[in-house]
């Protein structure tokens, strides 16, 4: 466990010579739906507390997508240390297990450097794995994965879900029939082990962080305001080169089932590049897809991240400083 009981300096983000003392805080965790202000809040707290940002978004790990995943730009990266952003090639089928392995190394490094780890991202499963442990699912051999993917090529997702229902009804009942990535994952596990994915999910490895020792928040905002922010942000992404980014990814001819190929906006922009959609229609569908994802993020957090404080970005920042002030008072 990482406990910070030292002076944390403002460093390169300093607006004064003030220092803040942190005691018995192993990490700050900032979750929330897409476009809720997680990254901006995390950066402000990293600057204030001498912290280091660690990515907890399953799409921001990919180096192929900076614009479409709203990954921190070079200017933000220069203000505070960032880890696990853009460090994975798009051809890799990155998973929560691989992320935890990378996080374990990142936490060791932040501990060695005396910095406070600040996790920010929209992938609820990452936060659940970090604070509750991850299911001990066996690694699927690459040849098995390739066999399942080849068999699934060209098959509509509803038929894939029906196939899963026949061999693993318990897992199929838990998955959305429109989620090919998770359906394929379940089919791969069954093909490799002959067992239901659910049977492995009931066994968990110990978590890397104790939920009692972290300051964890889930950012909330008005639903209509969030939808408007999603729309405005995607328009800004187009202005910043999202279409060109999608074109470069399309040129790689990667497996469409890979996570990077399903990042919000990617399928729709590639459909536009293929001549199947107008740019306006591609943007409309991308915005709608992202809004639906935000709703699922809220649902997941409500049921799976019970220990997180639900609050607005402004209130979360106030709470963070209040907690630190309380630690200061306790030391006097």
Architecture overview:
Mean pLDDT is 89; it is low at 1-23 and 325-332. This protein starts with 6 loop residues before the first strand and ends with a helix. The chain has a six-stranded parallel beta sheet, with helices on both faces. Strands 1-2 form a two-stranded antiparallel sheet. The protein folds into two domains: 7-134 and 205-331, P-loop containing nucleotide triphosphate hydrolases (Rossmann fold, 3-Layer(aba) Sandwich), CATH 3.40.50; 142-201, Histone, subunit A (Orthogonal Bundle), CATH 1.10.20.140. It has helices spanning 38-49, 74-77, 96-113, 124-132, 142-152, 157-167, 169-172, 180-193, 197-201, 223-239, 242-251, 266-273, 279-304, 313-331, and strands at residues 7-9, 19-21, 27-31, 51-55, 82-83, 116-120, 214-219, 309-311. The chain has 14 helices and eight strands. Helix 5 (142-152) crosses helix 8 (180-193), helix 6 packs parallel to helix 8 and helix 11 (242-251) crosses helix 12 (266-273). Strand 4, helix 2 and strand 5 form a beta-alpha-beta unit. It is of the alpha/beta class.
């Amino acid at each position: 466990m990482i406990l910070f009981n030292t002076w944390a300096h403002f460093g390169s983000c300093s607006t004064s010579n003030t220092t803040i003392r942190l005691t018995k805080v192993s990490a700050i965790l900032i979750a929330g739906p897409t476009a809720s202000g997680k990254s901006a809040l995390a950066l402000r707290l990293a600057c204030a507390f001498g912290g280091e940002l660690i990515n907890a978004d399953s799409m921001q790990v990919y180096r192929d997508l900076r614009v479409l995943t709203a990954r921190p730009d070079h200017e933000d990266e220069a203000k505070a240390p960032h880890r696990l952003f853009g460090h994975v090639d798009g051809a890799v089928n990155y998973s929560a297990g691989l992320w935890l392995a990378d996080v374990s190394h990142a936490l060791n490094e932040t501990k060695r450097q005396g910095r406070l780890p600040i996790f920010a991202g929209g992938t609820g499963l990452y936060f659940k794995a970090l604070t509750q442990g991850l299911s001990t699912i066996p690694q699927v051999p690459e040849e098995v994965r390739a066999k399942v993917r080849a068999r699934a090529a060209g098959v509509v997702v509803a038929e894939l879900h029906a196939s899963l229902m026949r061999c693993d009804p318990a897992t199929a009942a838990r998955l959305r029939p429109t989620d090919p990535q998770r359906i394929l994952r379940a089919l791969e596990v069954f093909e490799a082990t002959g067992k239901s994915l659910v049977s492995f999910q009931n066994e968990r490895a110990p978590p890397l962080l104790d939920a009692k020792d972290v300051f964890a928040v889930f950012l909330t905002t008005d639903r209509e305001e969030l939808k408007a922010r999603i729309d405005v942000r995607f328009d800004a992404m187009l202005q910043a080169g999202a279409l060109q980014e999608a074109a470069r990814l399309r040129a790689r001819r990667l497996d469409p089932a890979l996570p990077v190929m399903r990042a919000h906006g990617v399928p729709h922009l590639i459909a536009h590049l293929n001549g199947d959609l107008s740019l306006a229609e591609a943007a409309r569908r991308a915005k709608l897809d992202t809004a639906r994802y935000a709703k699922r993020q809220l649902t997941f957090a409500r049921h799976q991240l019970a220990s997180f404080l639900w609050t607005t970005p402004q209130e979360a920042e106030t709470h963070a400083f209040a907690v630190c002030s309380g630690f200061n008072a306790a030391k006097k």
